[in-house]
UniProtKB/TrEMBL annotation:
The keyword Translocase does not apply. Residues 6-128 form the MTTase N-terminal domain. GO terms for molecular function: 4 iron, 4 sulfur cluster binding; metal ion binding; tRNA-2-methylthio-N(6)-dimethylallyladenosine(37) synthase activity. Residues 151-382 form the Radical SAM core domain. The keyword Methyltransferase does not apply. Residues 384-454 form the TRAM domain. One of its GO terms (cellular component) is cytosol. [4Fe-4S] cluster 1 binds at residues 15, 57, 91. This is tRNA-2-methylthio-N(6)-dimethylallyladenosine synthase. NCBIfam families: miaB-methiolase, MiaB/RimO family radical SAM methylthiotransferase. It comes from Janibacter melonis. Belongs to the methylthiotransferase family. MiaB subfamily. It is an enzyme of class 2 (transferase). Its EC number is 2.8.4.3.
Length: 505
């Protein structure tokens, strides 16, 4: 009788980068012969996997408490089953290194953000030597996208175009943990996009800490716009998105490429962080509010339907009431569809952590509430302006919690707004990955309702290769639940957390 294969469980914290890195960790483990714990029928699986991997985040507040809390919960399992292996990777591992095995000696492997490809070998070595393995590299060993990947969605995929960041925003830990920007060659990116499309993927998100400085490493300032245009030539690729661009590096050729490439979607997530030029300077963000507003104006001029979203930090050290009023002014003028709003809190290891004039919590809270109230009002007005439009929705799993009860299906419109669509009785039901067109009947503050079909309006379903791919995936043993694309949620901001954002966080 052959032994059952060892199981793995990858637990992810943090940003899109980590979600995508976790897809690679799963791919690496599967290539090494492990199977996903979630794919083992419930009655046949143990209470933990044979290998538990934490892909950690150092950006969020209390990230270390959360990690050590999670590790503490696994300790009794490890005592009962010494063969259980626990690995910690991601930004906390890069930051804390040996401290992790000092504080949690039952951890077997610690690996950094630059060497995720070493995980299977480190697990083997730890098992063989019966000794914890800590391996952290200072720079990238292999561009992560060349590693095997187990993708979580059949119809949407991520493609990394760069990793790391050459900026030095004073609130951000990312440059210290992810290193200098490394750009992947365009040919390699396009080959991956084509391979995804051949598997049924309709929607690709180009991912980088700072996508529009892409090309800096090989000396082509226009490389990102060219890449968008090249994606336009990939047959079968229906939706191209990207995250996150930096306003300082946002050039007009990118706006032109967005406007002229039909499969590049009319949505833009561009972090503002603050509307005050003085605060932007202290944040070491090298654009000013006038430049930011100028980009928005040109995007709206060339792409009138574009939905623009942003990230904003409230209460950065030294922020005065006048500075905050500047943020409100820029928010009013920008008319974002939605914004991720963050209360500044100290991130150890960042320059801002030791700045004088940290703002008292009560002041930050009060400003934050004013900002959220203003943005909610704008989001609602912008969504009400969508009423009567016909939208094309890429149906997705996990986007509509009440869909069963309301007989709707949910997904994202071209501009990335969340839409819940009523399915009329007896009508064809789309599969996740299919497209449905429907009329918007109500713009709620954080989503759209498209119930037009119930009163004789548009309702048409287009079966796609994405839907076919989803259906094929259902025939396989149950895997992990699909993740949503992870794009900024227009109209449905993430639950507010007192964390400073980083690009892509
Ligand atoms: S906030 Fe974004 S651009 Fe600034 S340092 Fe962090 S990753 Fe780079």
């Amino acid at each position: 009788m052959t032994a059952a294969p060892k199981t793995y469980d990858v637990r992810t914290h943090g940003c899109q980068m980590n979600v995508h890195d976790s897809e690679r960790l799963a791919g690496l483990l599967e290539t090494a012969g492990y199977v996903d714990l979630a794919s083992v029928p419930e009655g046949e699986r143990g209470d933990t996997a044979d290998v538990v991997v934490f892909n950690t985040c150092a950006v969020r507040e209390n990230a270390d408490n959360k990690l050590y809390g999670n590790l503490g919960q696994l300790r009794p399992h490890k005592q009962r089953n010494p063969d259980l292996q626990i690995a910690v990777g991601g930004c906390m591992a890069q930051k804390d290194r040996d401290t992790i095995v000092q504080r949690a000696p039952w951890v077997d492997v610690v690996f950094g953000t630059h060497n995720i490809g070493s995980l299977p070998a480190l697990l083997d070595r730890a098992r063989h030597n019966r000794e914890a393995q800590v391996e952290i590299l200072e720079s990238l060993e292999t561009f992560p996208s060349t590693l095997p990947t187990r993708r979580d969605s059949a119809y949407s995929g991520w493609t990394s175009i760069s990793v790391g960041c050459n900026n030095t925003c004073t609130f951000c830990i990312v440059p210290a943990l992810r290193g200098k920007e490394k750009d992947r060659r365009p040919g390699e990116i396009l080959a991956e996009v084509e391979a995804l499309v051949a598997q049924g993927v309709l929607e690709v998100t180009l991912l980088g800490q700072n996508v529009n400085s892409y090309g800096v490493e090989f000396g082509d300032r226009l490389a990102f716009g060219k890449l968008l245009r090249a994606c336009g030539d990939v047959k079968g690729l229906e939706r191209v998105r990207f995250t996150s661009p930096h306003p300082a590096a946002f050039t007009d050729d990118v706006i032109e490429a967005m406007a002229q490439t039909p499969n590049v979607m009319p949505s833009l997530h561009m972090p503002l962080q603050s509307g005050s030029d003085r605060v932007l300077k202290d944040m070491r963000r090298s654009y000013r509010s006038a430049k930011f507003l100028g980009i928005i104006e040109r995007v709206r001029d060339r792409i009138p339907d574009a939905a623009i979203t942003t990230d904003i930090i409230v209460g950065f050290p030294g922020e005065t009431e006048a500075d905050f009023e500047e943020t409100l002014r820029v928010v009013r003028e920008s008319r974002f569809s939605s914004a991720f709003t963050f209360q500044y809190s100290i991130r150890p290891g960042t320059p801002a952590a030791t700045m004088a004039d940290q703002i008292p919590k009560a002041v930050v809270q009060e400003r934050f509430e004013r900002l959220v109230a203003l943005q909610d009002e704008i989001s609602w007005q912008e969504n009400r302006a969508q009423e009567g439009r016909t939208v094309e929705v890429l149906v997705a799993t996990g986007e509509g919690r009440k869909d069963g009860a309301t007989d709707r299906i949910s997904g994202r419109a071209r501009d990335n707004r969340l839409v819940h669509v009523a399915v009329p009785e007896g009508a064809q039901r789309p599969r996740p990955g299919d497209m449905v067109s429907a009329d918007v009947t109500y713009g709620a503050p954080h989503h759209l309702l498209a119930d037009g079909a119930l009163s004789g309006g548009t309702y048409s379903v287009r079966r796609t290769a994405g839907g076919d791919a989803w259906e094929r995936a259902q025939a396989q043993p149950a895997g992990k639940p699909s993740v949503s694309l992870g794009m900024p949620r227009i109209g449905a901001p993430a639950p507010v957390t007192p964390a400073a954002p980083a690009c892509g966080a």
